[in-house]
Amino acid sequence: MRVLVVEDDPDLLLGLTQALREEGYAVDHASEGNEALARAMAWPYDAIVLDIMLPNLSGREILRQLRTKQSTPVLFLTALDTVDDRVSGLDLGADDYLVKPFDLSELLARLRAIIRRSHEVADPIIRFGDLAINTTARLVTKDNEPIELTAREYALVELLAMKRGRLVTRTFIYDHLFDENHDSMSNLVDVYISRIRSKLGKDFVKTRRGEGYLVGN
Amino acid sequence: MAIKSLRLRIQIWHAAILTLVIVGFASAAYWQQSRWRMREIDRELSSAVEVLSSQLAAMPVDILANIGSGEQPDPTNKTIASEIWESLRVPDTFTPRRIRHRFEAPYFAIIATDGRVLKSSTHAFERIPPAVDYPPQDASSDITYRFQGEWREAFVQGPADSIVLAGRYLGTDFRDLQELAWILSGIGLLLLGVGLLGGWLASGRAVAPIGQIAIVAERISASQLSDRVNAESMDREFAGLANTLNQTFERLEAAFQRQSQFTSDASHELRTPLSVMNMHQQLALSKPRSESDYRETIEVCQRATRRMTDLVESLLTLARLDANMQPNFTTIEITETVLGVIEELKPLATKRALLLEHALEQSIHVHGDATQLAQVIRNVLGNAISHSPIGETIQITLTADGDFAHIHIVDHGPGIASEHLGKIFDRFYRIEQDRSRSDSGGSGLGLSISHSIVRLHQGTITVRSEPGQGSDFEIRLPLTKPETPAPTIPPFPRENGG
Is the ipTM of this complex over 0.90? Predict the structure, then answer.
């Protein structure tokens, strides 16, 4: 899952980025309004964590403009705590609203929730036969036995599971698994696919030659 | 005990005045009527007495002689003279109406000087009291009147030393007057009743707007400050009150909004560093970290702590300034203060390759707190330094003219757009909407604090700015005159040049 974090306080931005990366997210960041809007418009992020009070362009304005083009899940993370602020934020099209200072675990849970919702997944545990992908614990089990996965491997499994039943291209996987700091390595996706196949079983991911990958039916 | 109800008090006054007027009017009417009636009676009596006197004077000489000797003419001796004597009586017009008893009829008497009654109307004897004080001793040629119990009498010195007297019962007149009194009392009570009822209703209508205002005022203070008393439908007297109240509410609402804005700004300013600390601490604790990671976390927390400390200090400074405390006002040489701040900030300017040019007039004294004034200069100069492009020059001048010291701090930075000029001294106002302290630093309270300090010193701080040209901050402080204490100048209106 690739997320965009927009926050003008450098210390907070640093912390958020680090925390989300440790959770297996690919993280892009912006500390100023115009840059944030450009990024949000350019990439189909899985979610955006958006501050409201930003230099040059406010978070509200970014969201307003974004909603004319994209339905990316957006979570407002702001110090504006009045009911009016929260109501107007949500009514602008935000998917969630969290007031600073916040609890890291709550932010992560809310982020997971809005991403699930955007993929129309209600149950945090996604099942494929004997495989169970627990998106809350970020744990994959096979016949109730946990399978050891790296953060990125898990992220790939989760991404494919969320997109179950739909064809997923290699570019899509690449875009959603790695942030902009990664140099493009075309075979990186294939490497990760083969790794999860060896850990979860060959049948988990089907390959459509020249088109992409498919999980489920 | 004082009566607290305005309406009741109005009513009581109304009742008192109304009663006074009605009683006064009725009394006057009654008094006038009785006086008029008495004059009428006296006129009748006097005409009766005069008629009798003239009749008596026209008597034949022998009768007059008899009167003089005190003898009555023999009634059996029917002479012409005695006939005339017998026919002696008061005119018919003298008889009043509504006589209930015989003795109420008017009477007359002709009395000799020795007190013997020579002739009288018959019933007169029945009521003439013992002769002790009768006849009147003081009869003269003028008609004299007197009261005899319920009777009114007039008498005069008649011919041949006789006394001619006519009397009239007053009972019937008293009865008339009593009736009048009853009628007047009745009308008076009726008027009073109608007047009081009308007054009560009218005063109720008059005080109704006060109730209305009170209801609205209560609602306003209880919940929404944006509500207003509807002054347009009110009378002029109450509209004034309502307008005054509305203005008060407006000021209250503005103050309330400023206060709540201030609180929300202050809490917002605290939220970001708190979030930073919270974030990094949770991150550090989420799994085992390297020593350098922990060090970094602690450094981040330290920065956040410093920011919060600065903010809290600024808030405390503002609170103290708001309390208008004048802690250490002494005569200070402002030149030294300005120079001190310039020296202090020089390293900061050098870091950005800025040149601080200064031209300071010597020995300029103002009355104030050196630490606070230094803070003003530091805030303004600090802003100029952080907003100036690298390599620019900042000019600082200090001059004195007449009553004021003028400090100008002129930078060649980006300047301030006119829409911000009016607000830059507001608390937490930032020209950039970012509230980021990454480059400009400060809590957003610096200029506001400066403004408060300068106002406490009875000076002014103003700014002239042109976007792209830079800004010119002027701090104006009243000079200390030797021997004379600093004048008390009323709080000045905020000025913003440009």
Answer: no
Of A19, A99, A102, the CB nearest to B283: A19
**Cα dist from B431 to B156, B420, B424, B435, B469, whole Å:** 114, 7, 7, 9, 16
Beta sheet of A167-168, edge-to-edge order: A167-168, A212-215, A205-208
Which of A31, A71, A35 shows the shortest CA–CA distance to A53? Answer: A31
Q: Domain ranges in chain A?
A: 2-118, 125-215
- Interchain CB distance below 8 Å, B272 and A100: yes
Superfamily in which the A2-118 domain is placed by CATH: Response regulator (3.40.50.2300)
Residue B342's CB is within 10 A of a number of other CB atoms, namely: 20
Q: Which CATH architecture has domain A125-215?
A: Orthogonal Bundle (1.10)
The distance of A49 to chain B (nearest Cα, Å) reads 14
B278 contacts: CB under 8 Å, gap ≥ 6? A101, A102, A103, A104
Contacts of B439 in chain A (CB under 8 A): none
Name every chain A residue with its beta carbon within 8 A of the beta carbon of B431: none
- Which residues are within 8 A (CB) of B336 and not within 5 positions of it... i.e. 6 or more apart? none
Give the mutation candidate from A9, A58, A98, A105 for the B interface (greatest B CB count, under 10 A): A9
- Please name the helix (run of DSSP H) or strand (run of DSSP E) that holds residue B359, with its range, or none: strand B355-360
Whose tokens are 């958006």? That residue is: A50
First to last CA, chain B: 62
Which of B183, B154, B145, B149 is CA-nearest to residue B33? B183
B window 257-276, beta carbon within 8 A of A:
264, 267-268, 271-272, 274-276
**DSSP letters for B61-127:** HHHHHHHHHTPPPPSSS--HHHHHHHT----GGGPPS---SGGGS-EEEEE-TTS-EEEE-HHHHHH
Statement: B236-319 belongs to CATH 1.10.287.130: yes
Nearest to A6 by CA among A56, A72, A67, A52: A52
Contacts of A14 in chain B (CB under 8 A): 300
Most confident stretch, A151-165, A167-181, A184-198, B15-29:
B15-29
Range in A188-202, B290-304, B338-352, B394-408 the model is least confident about: A188-202
CATH T-level fold of B327-478: Heat Shock Protein 90 (3.30.565)
Closest CA to B186 of B44, B26, B11, B405: B26
Chain A interface, Cβ < 8 Å to B: 8-12, 14-16, 18-19, 22, 31-32, 53-56, 58, 79-82, 99-105
User: pLDDT tens-digit profile of B370-418?
Assistant: 888 999 999 999 989 988 888 889 999 999 888 899 999 999 988 888 8
Q: Give yes or no for a contact between A108 and A23, defined as CB atoms under 8 angstroms apart.
A: yes
Res. B295 pLDDT band, cuts 50 70 90: very high
Q: What is the largest CA-CA distance in chain B?
A: 167
Q: Which residues from chain B sit within 8 angstroms of residue A80, using beta carbons?
A: 268
Give chain B positions within 8 Å (CB) of A103. Answer: 278, 282
Residues B431-449 have pLDDT tens digits of: 664 444 444 456 678 888 8
User: Which tokens belong to B283?
Assistant: 């991150």
Amino acid at residue number B446? G
User: How far is the C-alpha of A192 from the C-alpha of A209, rounded, in Å?
Assistant: 17
